[in-house]
Specification:
Elements (H helix, E strand, L loop, with lengths): L1 E7 L1 H6 L2 H11 L2 E8 L3 H7 L9 H8 L4 E8 L2 H9 L12 H5 L8 E3 L3 H11 L12 H4 L6
Antiparallel strand pairs: 1-3, 1-4, 2-3
């Protein structure tokens, strides 16, 4: 099973969308295996957004991400990374497909409610960045109700 990180961003926290976002992922059949509220620091954001450090909006996105605590979640499922990316929609929210989290609930490119791992390799790095090993849980879920026998 794949795993992926989803960060519920400050705009979603301020708008009271935590339940809406997690509910959509759960209803799809993804399994929540880690969740916590954290206040992101300059240090962790420098690491997390290092690929954007040369962009003019780098400082602004860090300020935004530190403006309130965020909810960091870890999800598990078959094709988890791609499934979550499809559920959340494209980064520029106002152009995201209706039915996606961003397409239904956001308008901005920065204030776009969630961050999600963009690949399996990134997911592994992000899981270790945001979670201690003891904060990720393994448990039986109703996978026979979600996947066929040959998919498990």
């Amino acid at each position: 099973m794949e795993r992926s990180v989803v960060i519920i961003k400050p705009d979603a926290i301020q708008r009271g969308l935590i339940g809406e976002i997690t509910s959509r992922l759960e209803r799809k059949g993804l399994k929540l295996i880690g969740i916590k509220m954290v206040q992101l620091t300059n240090s962790i954001l420098n690491e997390h957004y290092s690929h954007l450090s040369d962009e003019k909006f780098f400082r602004e996105i860090k300020q935004f991400m530190m403006s309130t605590p965020v909810i960091v979640t870890c999800w598990e499922g078959l094709d988890c990374v791609e499934t979550i990316r499809q559920l959340i929609g494209i980064t520029l929210s106002r152009k995201a497909e209706p039915g996606t989290i961003r397409g239904d609930l956001a308008m901005s490119i920065q204030n776009n409610l969630v961050h999600a791992s963009d690949s399996n390799d990134t997911a592994i790095i992000e899981i270790y960045r945001f979670f201690e090993k003891i904060e990720i849980f393994s448990y039986d879920a109703l996978s026979p109700c979600i996947y066929s026998k040959h998919e498990n």
